[in-house]
Amino acid sequence: MSEPTGPVLAAGCVLWRSSPYDGGLEICLVHRPRYDDWSFPKGKLKRGESALAGALREVLEETGHHCAPGARLPTSRYEVNGRPKEVAYWAAEATGGSFIPNDEVDRVVWLSPAAARNRLTRDRDHAQLDALLAGRSTV
Hints:
Layout: E1 8-18, E2 25-32, E3 37-39, E4 42-44, H1 51-63, E5 65-80, E6 83-97, E7 107-111, H2 113-119, H3 126-137
């Protein structure tokens, strides 16, 4: 069997909603017990799956929420076990659903942008949050 070539392809969303309490912007983060980290919902693409379809599937699988995709956000590029990985991201508004804990994601939180920034485990995830906020300020 030959070694895989090229980057591992993945996709996800910065899932957001208007707070049911005060109408302010809330960002959804997921906790993955396998890595004990807080991040945006994301995952590897299935064979033949488009990045956007994969992003929407991952949001539903990890958060239980359906969403309406919006603007494309910066792609995250990094290495995992010596292999390059590329994660395509979109802004996405939550349109309904509910979270049920599972083996992959045991918790979700909806936080203000500032609190989300502080909770994110990896600094590289700040670029997607910053792009979402910059795009919302121009609307």
